[in-house]
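Researcher: Quick one. two chains, 722 residues in total.
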Amino acid sequence: MTGLEGVGGCGGENSTVVESREWVMSAYAAEGVPTSDHLKLRTTKLSLDANSIPDGHVAVELLWISVDPYLRTRMTGHDDGLYFSQFALNEVITAFGVGRVFLSKNGKFSTGDIVINPFFPFAEYCIAPPTFLRVIDPTAGIELPAYLSSLGVPGFAAWVGIEVLGNPKPGSNVFISAAAGGVGIFAGQLAKLKGCRVVGSTGTDEKVKLLKEEFGYDEAFNYNKETDFDAALRKYFPNGIDLYLDNVGGKMLEAVLNHVNLHARIPICGMISQYNQIWTEREGVRNLLNMVGKEVRMEGYLVGSYLDRFDDFTKEMETYTKEGKLRSKHKIYCGIESFIESLGSMFTSSNIGKVVIQVKP
Amino acid sequence: MTGLEGVGGCGGENSTVVESREWVMSAYAAEGVPTSDHLKLRTTKLSLDANSIPDGHVAVELLWISVDPYLRTRMTGHDDGLYFSQFALNEVITAFGVGRVFLSKNGKFSTGDIVINPFFPFAEYCIAPPTFLRVIDPTAGIELPAYLSSLGVPGFAAWVGIEVLGNPKPGSNVFISAAAGGVGIFAGQLAKLKGCRVVGSTGTDEKVKLLKEEFGYDEAFNYNKETDFDAALRKYFPNGIDLYLDNVGGKMLEAVLNHVNLHARIPICGMISQYNQIWTEREGVRNLLNMVGKEVRMEGYLVGSYLDRFDDFTKEMETYTKEGKLRSKHKIYCGIESFIESLGSMFTSSNIGKVVIQVKP
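Model:
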C-alpha cells in the first residue's frame, strides 16, 4: 500500500529502513548540458521510524518530481545573471515534487496525505520539515502531475507574468515566446481566458499546430522558419503588442521592442536562448530607447517573490482545471534514474509541454 | 509696464498691434544639431485687440522660454524611438514658457497675471487657449525661471522618475547619469531629500565638483575620465545600486545592470547618448538577463502621462524651494533670437544646469 513492501527493513522489530536513491551534485557544469560527470545517483539507507524523525517533520515517499530549466542554472558553479544559489557539491539537489506522507510527527499532516513541496530532495524517500509543505486534496479530480505544471512552478510563473505583471485586458495583443514550453502553454491559455488575442513563437511546425489546435493560440509561428522576427511580428501583430511574456531574450526581445504599443508590459520570465553564453557574448538589445517613447515597463521576476499570492493562484487554476478551461500537457519520464535524460531534453526542443518524472508508478 | 510701449499700433484708436518674432520649422534635421537651415526666425504682426481674441482665450506676452532636449527629437522628421510628434513644417514650434497676460477673454485670467503653459508658441507674443494655462503666484518668492526648471519639465521629469517610479527609501543607493543636466540636478536633490545616498556621472571635472559642492551629491565621477564604467560603479557602489535614473542609455545602462540590487528600479527618462544614431547602430545592452535574477523593473516614461500628478509635484517643489532645500541653476540666453545657439549648447556638455531663454529683460 505504501510502496515499501519488500524494501529491506533491517532495524528492530518496529523499525522501517528503506533504500532510497537520490541525485547528488558531484561537479559543476559551467557549460553545456550536465551529464553523469556532474550528477551522480547514489543509494542510501534511510530510517523512516518515528524515532528517526525530528519533531514537526514528516517522512515522505516521493511520487512525482518536476524537471525545470531553472535547475540547470543552479549547476553552473558560477554567477550567470540569474543569481540563483548553486547546489552544494556532494549534496542531494532539490526540486519541486509531489509525495505521500509515510509517517508524520506534525499535527497538520497524516499518514497517506498527498503533499507538495518546492524543495523536496531529489530522492525516492525523505524526511521533510513542514516549511513549504502543503496538502493536496486528492478528491479534487485533478491528476497529480498537474500540481507540478499548471498548479506548480511553470503555471505559477505564467500566472505571475500574465496576471500580476502583465495586466491583460480583453482585446490586448499578447505575444509569448517559447510558447509550447512549460510556462508558455499556461501563459497563452491564461491570456485567452482574459479575452486577449494571443500569438506564440516556438521551434517546430508540430508545436505551431499544437498551440493553435490544442491550446487555443490565435496564431503561432516557427522561429526556425520565420527567421526575420521583425517581419513575423509585423505580420502577426498589425495592431502592435500590448504584452510580451519573454522566455527567450536576445533578438526576439529586440524585435518585440519595434512593435510595442503605448504602455506595453514585458515581464521577463527567463531568457533560455542566452543561458549558455557568458554575458559579454550575449546578444545586445539595441532599441531600448523605444521603451521611453512607448512608456514600456519591462520587469524581471522570480516566482519565489510572489509566494504570498500562491493561494490566489492555486484557487484560480484549480477552478479553471475543474471547469475544463485549462489543459495541461506532460512529457513523463519514468523512474528517478531518468533525471539526466529528462534534464537534457529541455534544451533540444524535443519535448512538448511540461517535463516530469514519475518516481513511483 | 506691459513691455508694449513703442511697439507699432496701427489699427483703429482702440487697437494694439505688435510685431512678434517667432521660430518656424523650415526643414527637418535628420542628423546633427539643427541650424538656421532648419529653424527660421520670422516677424509677424499680431493684433492683441479684444476683437481679435477668441472667447475663452488670452493674449500673452512671453517672458521666459524653456529649451529642452526633447525639442530636438521633434525636429528629425522621422520616427526615432521616442515617437514624439514632429513639428509641422512652416509652422511655429511650441515650448514650455512663462508669460504675462496682456488681455483676457477668460474669467480665470486677468491682465497682468503671470502664466505658464507647456505648449506656448515659441514667440514674443501669442493668443493662447486656456488649455494647460496655469497662473503663478508672483508673491510666492520663487524666481520665474524656476517654473521652467525645478517647477517645470525637468523638475517634473526628475520627480516622476525618482518619486513615482523610483520609490526611494532612506539609505537607498541611487545613481543618476547626466547628473549636472536639467533633470539630473533635481533628481539628485530629490533623492537626497528622501535620505538616499546619491552618486552622479557627468562630463567634466568642473561639473563633478559642482554636483558635490552645490547639489549635495555624495559622490560624482567624470565619465570622460573614468571610462571603465563597470569599475567606476564597483568603486562608487560597494553595496550595489537600488535605483538608477537613466538619462543616457547604452554602455552606462549595461554597466549599471552588473551592479543592481534585488528589486532595483530603472526609470528611463531619456537616452541622450543614443539620439544621433539610427537604432540598428546604437549600442546593444547584453546583460538584460540580470533583470531576471535581480527582479529589476525598468520603465520608460514621458511626463505627459503623469499630468494628473502635476499639482502634487508643484506643491512639493514649491515647499522645498521656499524652505531653501532645493537649488536651481540656470544657463540663461538673452532674447528669442538666441534659440539656435541655446539648443546647440545642450549637445556639447558646455552648459551647467537648465537652459532657458529670457525673452523680455
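The interface with chain A takes residues 80-84, 249, 253-254, 263, 268-271, 274, 279-302, 305 of chain B (CB under 8 Å).
Researcher: Thanks, that's what I needed.
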